[in-house]
Specification:
Elements (H helix, E strand, L loop, with lengths): L1 H25 L6 H5 L2 H21 L4 H24 L5 H18 L1
Length: about 110
């Protein structure tokens, strides 16, 4: 069962990396509306999302849906908060920290 949890961590990392690429592109100027959505950075993000989704299908065939979803979605949310702080200087407020702690507690209840 541990291997499936490690694969979930991989899915979380892929999803978070995709979100970082999307944010990076969103903060940039683009020469056209089409290029805003179809530039190399965004396309790389799409590729990471697709890869994560395919890997997640593998996880879902071996782990209960409630557990896999709780882990994947919540950990992606928490990692996005942390990477937003690291890469974009976004504020890490007490509210976000408390919310993340509540999310982790909920995941431990569901996954436990």
């Amino acid at each position: 069962m541990l291997k499936y949890y490690l694969v979930i961590v991989l899915v979380v990392i892929l999803s978070t990396a995709a979100q970082l690429l999307m944010k990076k592109s969103a903060k940039s100027e683009h020469r056209s509306l089409l290029f805003e959505y179809l530039n190399p950075v965004v396309l790389s993000g799409y590729a990471l999302f697709l890869t994560g989704t395919i890997i997640n299908l593998y996880v879902l065939s071996h782990v209960k849906l409630a557990v896999a979803s709780a882990l994947t979605e919540s950990l992606t949310f928490i990692l996005a908060i942390l990477t937003g702080r690291i890469f974009f200087g976004e504020r890490l407020t007490r509210r976000k920290i408390l919310g993340s702690a509540v999310i982790l507690a909920g995941v431990m209840i569901v996954a436990g």
